[in-house]
Specification:
With 1023 residues, the protein is of the alpha+beta class.
């Protein structure tokens, strides 16, 4: 058993974003994906705000992600004053130079920074995942560095970096050379003409050359290589000033990774550009449906009208997509992709690897070059209020920006703390000063620092009967309130401790550690200065924030008023011919790279009694994993029912997030004062509540959760807050297309919908006595922390044998044919979700291999739908509830496409998924990739609890991994094909604009019905 550390007295702090600490899947709004956000293991797919991509083309981003603010809003590059130089000023606030960090200070990352002979920066940090490493390549170039006539070039380049090299991604690199030159010449001619017939002729010729090049190209070979090497994720991203490429691999593949990355960074070949262009168009269509993106782009153009921060967008303008400058791509790469403008960030367990010598050998041939300067325009601060009004998707809103000159390190830290005072994700001055439910307004508060400017952003949706001008003035008043009503010591203490709490959370996995190190390089600062900001924030005082707020409230700002309305339709791209994608193709260079495997000691599987324990609770097992990498804990209570069985169940769960009146006199006035957060997630069949925070406060936090779940009295203020939380979560007007598709799927397959708006209103007016006693119904399944077994057992809920946990009933609607439900929403893109009828009887290994054959990066769906035909922007799969029954094959395929393509996409998805003739070469590639992942599969300590629980439910104390691998290795194609879902039986959900779809083609595939948004959200009165 584990020993118990001394338990100091509880620490007070603010309960910041619950989704950051406990892995909650609650919906969050975004304006841009994170700058270098990794696809961590517990993320299932990319959604609005999740930022996870499982492909080589990760997308675009404008602003720094909130998690980065833990070290002082780490975002883009910041100009740091040289020693003795002029200290930057913010409206009269003068920051003294920061004091040096003490020699005895401890670096929790164990980071070492060095440079190769060509100037390439190498940052190496300790990791938490035995046998694996996470690697980031960070290049200091983005959309703000693009030539005026070549918008979107940096993003195009990010996509094309996955197309291979002279020897990789092709069967004949010599043959490609004249074709590439011909393609560049055609694009140069296209840029010089506006004559429609001539444009049409050139586009036909470009398509012809693209097809000729495809005869020897191997589309997706780079991603396929990463997959075969056992990658947990591979992705990339482009922002205003930074482009990043990142992955997670077994340590045995470190040399192969270095060889591959060095080759494609040094000398990429941009083949099949015309095909990839349509994928970028689908990405832009996807972004255009998000009102936050449209609003944010408009605000940047208003704040920086004479600078590329405002005039250029990473995704590019519509005119840029119509005439992309392929002819400038190579010059752009040659100028900016240089070792003296890049860094490698490597985090992981690399003790037995000669890291420096391998990197010097592989990357040392990358030639350095002086970058020179680029004219990006001028930053002119507004002298008076600047307003723009526009229509965009989503509810009416106000977005405000205060642009300013680059700030000193001290002022950056103060400004970051000030944003948390205004809004920390759950509470702040916004909720105290604005009328109505602040969470329902989707507040967006952040600060961004770039090379030549910084700015503060505050955005909210309009409240009931509120005008744009009224909300604008209220936001100004809230910012001014920090000066007029100084920040209390309690406010400041809670915010600072919440920032520390988030920092502890980021220490738990290698990708999260890599994010902070990578962004520190992107800022242009030393790691010592990055750690210094941790010390500086501890010295922030209320007077500093008061002066800062006074300065901001006296400054001119820019503001965007949006009204609900659809964006104008994007112009269609010219026809692009599908390209051949033969799965058996493999370059000789790919075979050589796959053969590079360094022998490493085999990692022992998690050990009972050392890495984890199974507590035999009287209602079911509790999986306990020890946390040795941070000071946090997390406990999950699972319930064997969802809102499908009892719609009021979700009300009970939501009650856990609302503090009780009784708490004010006992264990804290608010949960935020206890050092942790509580969140819940309720699905159609299952649900859970999680409580997380500093381990020193585990007793107090579990006590708070117990009080909340045992309550039987509902004072009016608690009931009002609870109902507001539910309305914002389940009945928001701006719920994403992804979430609508998931809810429609739950309703059609499981007959389950969240509580209706009418039920919530009734609860708000009358209350309910049915919401008590939930504590005794929960089953503690996963605990992550350092509390000893005896103390943990005493803290957990107790119950009788009649309440033993059991697997949820996994019954589902069995479709008689292809049943298509269209949720009519005016938007540019389409969210498609296809859930096939259950398939049972196949072995677990057959299901695993068939799923890998379909869903891997080089799998059948991605190869045919994206790489060959450019029908989708993303495609992926889910296997719902398989953790409860490993023999259940309930496959759900999701994709982002366009209205005109949805019929073809659906038809092909069904044919590919249910096909009985499997490609032997593709199956062997999927087999090798799956075996590599299973053989080197490691998870973070927090993820381990969930994994052990799922294994325990399905197999008890037995670890089936070796048995599964043996079966997968020898399984024949007919046995794998037998596991395929049955053709002609599936439940299909399509969220999009029905007026732009070919309904006749859809009706040929199956029975079509139409659903309103209100029906899906559980309220007939919703629009």
């Amino acid at each position: 058993m584990f020993s118990t550390p001394a338990s100091p007295r509880p620490i007070k702090l603010s309960g910041s974003r619950c989704s950051r600490l406990v892995g909650s899947k609650q919906r969050s709004r975004r304006s841009r994906p994170p700058i270098v956000w990794p696809a961590t293991g517990d993320m299932k797919r990319y959604r609005h705000g999740d930022g996870c991509r499982r492909s080589g083309s990760n997308g675009v981003t404008r602003r720094s992600f909130m998690l980065s603010s833990i070290l002082g809003s780490v975002g883009c590059r910041l100009r740091i004053a040289e020693p003795g130089g002029v200290v930057q000023r913010l409206g009269g606030i003068v920051s003294a130079p920061p004091e040096a960090r003490g020699a005895d200070a401890v670096d929790p990352f164990g980071l070492t920074v060095s440079r190769l002979s060509n100037g390439l920066t190498v940052c190496q940090a300790d990791g938490t995942e035995p046998g694996r490493f996470t690697a980031y390549v960070v290049v200091r170039v983005g959309s703000s560095h693009e030539p005026d006539a070549a918008g979107g070039l940096a993003h195009y380049l990010e996509h094309m970096m996955f197309k291979g090299t002279e020897q990789l991604g092709t069967l004949d690199g010599v043959r490609d050379v004249p074709l590439l030159q011909r393609m560049a010449d055609l694009y140069a001619e296209l840029a010089d003409t506006s004559d429609p017939p001539e444009v049409a002729r050139l586009l036909r010729n470009i398509d012809s050359v693209n097809l000729e090049m495809a005869q020897s190209a191997i589309s997706g070979e780079v991603l396929g290589l990463y997959e075969r090497m056992g990658a947990k994720f591979v992705s990339a991203g482009t922002s205003d000033e930074v482009t990043t490429y990142f992955c997670n691999l077994p340590v045995s593949r470190f040399r192969a990774w270095a060889t591959l990355e060095a080759e494609r960074l040094r000398a990429p070949v941009f083949r099949l550009f015309f095909t990839e262009l349509e994928v970028v168009q689908e990405e832009r269509r996807h972004l255009a449906d998000d009102g936050a993106n449209v609003r944010f782009d408009a605000l940047l153009r208003l704040m920086f009208p004479s600078h590329t921060y405002g005039t250029h967008s990473p995704i590019g303008l519509e005119s840029d997509l119509a005439r992309p400058r392929f002819d400038l791509l190579d010059d752009f790469h040659q100028r900016w992709y240089r070792p003296n403008n890049a860094a490698l960030v490597i985090v992981g367990d690399l003790g037995g690897v000669e890291v420096t010598s391998i990197l010097e050998e592989e990357f040392g041939r990358w030639e350095r070059q002086e970058l020179g300067t680029v004219g990006r325009g001028t930053v002119s601060l507004p002298k008076a209020r600047e307003l723009r009004e526009l229509q965009c998707p989503g509810p009416a809103s106000v977005a405000m920006g205060w642009p300013m000159r680059p700030l000193s390190v001290v002022d950056r830290v103060r400004l970051d703390v000030l944003t948390r005072i205004l809004w920390d994700g759950r509470a702040g001055r916004l909720s105290a000063e604005l009328p109505g439910d602040t969470m329902a307004r989707r507040p967006e508060v952040w600060v961004v620092h770039m090379t030549e400017a910084s700015y503060l952003h505050v955005g909210l949706q309009l409240g009931a009967n509120e005008t744009h001008d009224e909300l604008e003035q209220r936001i100004v008043a809230v910012v001014s309130s920090v000066h007029e009503k100084p920040v209390s010591s309690g406010e400041l203490r809670r915010v600072l401790t919440a920032m520390e709490l988030e920092f502890q959370w980021m220490l738990e996995s290698d990708p999260q550690r890599a994010v902070l190190v990578a962004e520190s390089f992107a800022l242009g600062e030393s790691w010592e200065d990055a750690l210094l900001r941790l010390d500086l924030r501890r010295s922030v005082e209320a007077e500093d924030l008061c002066s800062l707020a006074e300065t901001l409230s006296s400054r001119a700002y820019c503001v965007v008023h949006t009204r609900k309305g659809g964006a104008p339709p994007l112009r269609p791209l010219p026809p692009i011919s599908p390209i051949p994608t033969e799965s058996g193709r493999q370059s000789e260079r790919a075979r050589e790279l796959l053969a590079i495997v360094d022998t490493q000691p085999r990692q022992a599987p998690p050990r009972l009694g050392t890495d984890y324990d199974v507590l035999p609770g009287d209602r079911g097992p509790v999986i306990w994993t020890r946390n040795e990498v941070s000071e946090l804990f997390c406990l999950r209570l699972v319930f064997d029912q969802g809102f499908g069985a009892d719609p009021l169940h979700v009300l009970r769960l939501a009650a856990a997030e609302v503090p009780t009146v009784e708490e004010s006199g006992s264990i804290g006035a608010q949960l935020e004062g206890l050092g942790g957060v509580i969140s819940h997630e309720s699905g159609a069949l299952t649900s859970y509540v999680e409580v997380a925070g500093l381990v020193q406060n585990v007793e107090a936090l579990l006590g708070s959760l117990r009080v909340r779940l045992q309550r039987s009295r509902w004072p009016k203020e608690e009931l009002t807050e609870l109902c507001a939380l539910l309305r914002g979560r389940y009945h928001a007007a701006d719920v994403s297309a992804t979430e609508l598709a998931r809810r429609a799927q739950d309703w059609l397959i499981y007959g389950a919908r969240p509580p209706s708006a009418e039920a919530i209103d009734l609860l708000s007016s009358t209350g309910s006595t049915k919401l008590d006693g939930l504590w005794e119904r929960g089953f503690a399944t996963q605990f992550f922390g350092s509390t000893d077994v005896e103390s943990l057992t005493r803290l957990l809920p107790a119950g009788g044998a009649a309440q033993r946990w059991s697997k949820p009933q996994l019954g589902a609607h069995e479709p008689a044919g292809i049943e298509i439900a269209i949720v009519d929403v005016p938007m540019e893109s389409v969210e498609l979700r296809v859930t096939f009828a259950d398939r049972r009887g196949a072995s677990t290994a057959a299901i695993d291999l068939h799923h890998a054959y379909l869903s891997n990066w080089s799998g059948l769906l991605n190869r045919e739908l994206r790489e060959k035909r450019s029908l989708v922007y993303h495609v992926g799969t889910d296997l719902p509830f398989r953790e409860y029954d490993p023999t259940l094959y309930r496959l759900s395929v999701w994709a982002n496409t366009s209205p005109k393509k949805v019929g073809e996409t659906l038809k092909l998805t069904i044919a590919l998924t249910c096909g009985q003739r499997l490609d032997e070469a593709a199956l062997d590639a999927s087999r090798a990739a799956l075996l590599e992942r299973l053989d080197s599969r490691q998870v973070s300590p927090r993820e381990l609890a969930a994994e052990i629980f799922a294994r325990h439910v399905a197999y008890g104390d037995r670890d089936p991994t070796s048995e599964r691998m043996a079966q997968i290795e020898t399984m024949l194609a007919p046995n794998v094909a037998a596991a395929a879902p049955e053709a002609g039986r599936a439940t299909v959900v399509i969220v999009g604009d029905r007026s732009r779809m070919d309904l006749r083609a859809l009706r040929k595939l199956g029975r079509v019905r139409f659903l309103s948004r209100g029906e899906v959200q559980g309220s007939s009165s919703s629009n």
